[in-house]
Amino acid sequence: MSRYRWVMAAIAGLLMTTSFISLTSFGILSGRMASTFGVTPVVLSVLGIDAFSIGLFAAFFLGQGGIFDARLKTGVLVAQLFLIVPQFLIPVFHVLYVLVALRFFQGLMIMMLALFSIQLEGWFPPGERARSLAFTLGAISLGSAAGGILSGVLTSLSWQESYYITGIIMVAGALIYFIFAKDSSAQRQEIIQAEKAKHKSVWKDPMVILMGLAQLPLSWVLFSVGGYLSTYSYHLGYSVSQTGTLIIGWGISGFIAAFVGAVLGDRIAGKRSSNREILKSRLVIMTVADILMALGIVLMITTGRLSFYYLLLAAVVNGFLMMFPPNYWALPGNIFPLAIVSAGAFGMGLISNSADAIGPLVTSSLLSDLGWNGIFLIMLGLSFLGMLINLIIYRSKIPLPGNDSG
Question: What integer best gives the mean pLDDT of the chain?
Fold first, then answer.
């Protein structure tokens, strides 16, 4: 296959990195932004993070009807406009409800997850798909770390100037992507041909429901920790510089974990001959990720307040939950017929990313009643739920496309 495929994976990863600066930088900058909007840092942080998280969920409504099936770069362009335009408007309009609306629109950029899953599938064989997606999915954590680094570097500037600088970085990432990115022409033609045939609604395929539920616990924890880890660190009494280091450590561990999970998943899946065997092999890695996610949560509860370094260790272990997404998003081509692979991927994302909205909302609404330990215990329970769902899918006999024997 063309060597260009690795260029495509790298620039998709770069775009995701620059995009996800917005996840953690807002939480870190919110303390400096609060006085401008006339509210407390906690109120601003909660409203901004919750609005962004609801946008992450709503994003998957935009593509589940198949409108971007053969126009993947167009979909990415729409996602980037949702992200970048608000980045330059937030420093201009110092009105709280405008900020909330703009943060919601920024969350819509998560639709790129499904778009890149399909786009890179057109360039990579099944045995390399998780590694290709590790660039984009690991970039969620890497971008989060970059947000922490930039927020620390730009402390001497006003928050408005910090927003403009990060916005320029986002524009640069988008320009590099659109200059060098290509959709696979062969894949585009195959999708167009396949869509001419009549096919059932994607919501009648039980794999859409099961696979959506499989990632729901991870999405809950990923975006709750990504949004509120800095708040938790401040709650424990750690400094701004320590909190920045914590975010960076969590982000970098997630980036490394994405590649570890991808290499392991591809190595096992590459030796399998049927779609069902490929699904089972990736489920093993996804379950290991759920276990590490749970272990990190336990460490946060039990040791996080004892020492900053214990909390950092807990965050690094929790960051290895990112072994899950590359294997998860490598599967649409193995579990859905070609005619509904795009709609199926958006359907999976719609269900799993409902937790992007629910998780942070639950955290913010129940924090005063349950405390941090209660919030983390909810995440722990969800981790075990994820393991159970993986087991159900592993043992299921739902028909898969092509040769699914085994």
Answer: 86
Domain count of the fold of the chain: 1
Task: List Cβ neighbours of 153 (8 Å cut-off, separation of 6 or more).
Answer: none
Give a yes or no: residue 405 inside a domain: no
Q: Is 231 helix (H, G, I), strand (E, B) or coil?
A: helix
Q: Sorting pLDDT into bands at 50, 70 and 90, what band is 117? A: confident
Question: Mind listing the pLDDT tens digit for each residue in 159-210?
Answer: 899 889 889 999 999 999 999 998 887 777 777 676 666 566 778 889 999 9
Enclosing domain of residue 102: 4-395
Crossing angle for the helix pair 4-19 and 72-89, to the nearest 10 degrees: 30
Are 170 and 21 a contacting pair, CB within 8 Å? yes
Residue 119's contacts (CB-CB under 8 Å, 6 or more residues apart) are 8, 12, 72, 73, 76, 181, 183, 184
Give per-residue pLDDT as tens, 340-363: 787 888 889 889 888 877 777 777
Q: What percent of the chain has pLDDT above 90?
A: 40
pTM of the shown model: 0.79
Instruction: Give 286's contacts (C-beta < 8 A, 6+ positions apart).
Output: 214, 323, 324, 327, 328, 390
CA distance 376 to 301: 7
φ, ψ dihedrals at 405, nearest 5°: -65, 155
Residue 403 lies inside a defined structural domain of this protein = no
Distant-in-sequence, close-in-space partners of 292: CB < 8 Å, separation ≥ 6: 257, 317, 318, 320, 321, 323
Whether the CA torsion 118, 120, 126, 129 is positive or negative: it is negative
In 3D, which of 250, 253, 252 has the Cα closest to residue 233? 250
